[in-house]
Amino acid sequence: MSPRVIDVYKRIWIVSGTVMEANTFTPLKGMSVVAFDCDGLLGTDCLGKAITDDEGRYCIIFTWDNYKHLLVFQPDVYVKVYDENKKLLKDTRKEVVRTMSFRKTINIEVDEHALFLTIDDLMEMIS
Questions:
Q1: What is the model's pLDDT at position 79?
Q2: What backbone phi and psi angles, to 5 degrees, belong to 60?
Q3: How far is CA 28 from the centre of its chain?
Q4: How far apart are CA 119 and CA 97, in angstroms?
Q5: Which residues pair with 17 in a beta bridge?
Q6: pLDDT in tens, 103-116
Q7: Position 90 confidence tier, pLDDT thresholds 50, 70, 90
Q8: Are 11 and 102 in contact, with CB atoms under 8 Å apart?
Q9: Residue 40 φ/ψ region, left for φ over 0, alpha for ψ in the -120 to 50 degree band, beta for the rest
Q10: Residue 109 belongs to what H/E stretch?
Q11: If we measure between CA atoms, which residue out of 52, 74, 53 comes closest to residue 63?
Q12: Overall average pLDDT of the 2-14 stretch
């Protein structure tokens, strides 16, 4: 078996935090958290995703390969949170973490009204 080669120049970043209901601070289990790099005119790159645990915690690990662009050395990160039905609950695009350091905690508070299904959601589920 050959030895494992590690690229010491490969940068690794970690985005982690807790997803909770905004008013009660109740942890939200089973939510999908997706991290993106905001490239302005170049668009966005998906950096990775995670599912929250019983205590609402998530952790997304990504490398330079997930987002590398010319002259960009650190990602500008935001996250989106989806429920188990893929309904968007929170988008932090207006709160982008510019030139993120190698580890960042992004705690996310979801408004209680976002947690309820709309009539359109219900109709889509039964059709």
A1: 93
A2: -120, 125
A3: 14
A4: 34
A5: 58
A6: 888 899 998 765 55
A7: very high
A8: yes
A9: left
A10: strand 108-110
A11: 74
A12: 61
pTM for the model stands at 0.76
Residue pair 104/15 in contact (Cβ under 8 Å)? The answer is: yes
pLDDT at position 117 is 53
Q: Which of 9, 63, 11, 56 is nearest to 37 (CA)?
A: 63
Residues 6 or more apart in contact with residue 20 via CB below 8 angstroms: 26, 27, 28, 56, 107, 108, 109, 110
Q: Do residues 20 and 107 make contact, with C-beta atoms less than 8 angstroms apart?
A: yes
**Cα separation of 35 and 40, whole Å?**
15
**pLDDT value at residue 49:** 95
Name residue 59's beta-bridge partners.
16
Tens digits of per-residue pLDDT, 25-38? 999 999 999 998 88
Give the integer Cα–Cα distance in Å for 36 and 33.
10
Exposed (0-12), middle (13-18) or buried (19+): which is 62, by Cβ within 10 Å? buried
Q: Where are the alpha helices (DSSP H) in the chain?
A: 119-126
The widest CA-to-CA distance across the chain, in whole angstroms, is 58
